[in-house]
Amino acid sequence: MILVADSGSTKTDWCLVGKNGLVKKASLKGCNPFFRTKEDIRAELKEMLLPEIEGCQIEAIYFYGAGCIAEKIEIVHSAISDIFPNAAIEVGTDLLGAAIGLKGNSAGIVAILGTGSNSCFYDGEGITDNVSPLGFILGDEGSGAALGKLFIGACLKNQLGEDIKNRFLERYGLDVPTILDRVYRQTMPNRFLAGFAPFIKENIETEGVHTLVYNAFSDYFKRNVMQYDYKQHPVSFTGSVAFHFQEILYQCASDLNIKIDKITQSPIQGLINYHTPKV
């Protein structure tokens, strides 16, 4: 059997795959090596993953994760190899995982809109072009973190009306000092900000909120997708934000003459199909 993992900044889907496809799935924390150590990841795999696959012989592991760039990849690879010393292990970026999961062996533009955002051109074998996302402070346009940042800023600067501002603060038990502390002093402010995406979605018809989200997606397209050959290739999206806000995403793409091929919440099923051992 093999393990296929898709890891974002928030969670990792670990899938046990046999010759007939998915056998079992377990969801653990995200394994971004920018925020987690080898020891931390290894401990979680030992305590949380191993019991889920007890008795299974793992021959190969395909791990695709946020933050798994060349300089950080060894942290994840080493943590996994300590737990599965006899398995062949491949570790790649979440962007490569999205590309394989969405496109397989076909070429096209691949886009991620989740807690963070990213994009690339995939030629059917590998990533040939990538506009750096730059993180949620300098970039990550259209992501959950970016939407949360824009929404909170608009709320606290009285741009969305008193009603939505008061409902938002009451819903999450927040005040201005707490928000500032979570964003500027605490760890993982991107996750904190992205956590407000459900509230934004619930209030999407509120005056100003729809425009805020639309403009965020427009920035994403203009600063990222439109740097690729979008006139010749459609865009395939994955990620929770793309999935749950797809009506606005389709609208924005159409207004910019960009064709969207598909939108999935996760690339994991495509990855499972791609890596399932062929009998």
Q: Helix count? A: 13
Beta-strand content bin: 15-25%
Name the helix and strand elements from N-terminus to C-terminus, one letter apiece.
EEEHEHEHEEEHHHHHHHEHHEH
Overall shape: it is globular
CATH architecture of the domain at 2-99 and 268-275: 2-Layer Sandwich
Rounded radius of gyration (Å) = 19 Å
Low-confidence stretches: none
Main sheet: which strands, in order across? 3-2-1-4-5
Largest sheet, in brief, is: 5 strands, mixed
What name does the CATH topology of the domain at 2-99 and 268-275 carry? Nucleotidyltransferase, domain 5
Distance between the termini: 12 Å
CATH class of the domain at 2-99 and 268-275: Alpha Beta
Q: What is the mean predicted local confidence, pLDDT?
A: 92
Instruction: Give the % helix.
Output: 40-55%
**Sheet/helix structural class:** alpha/beta
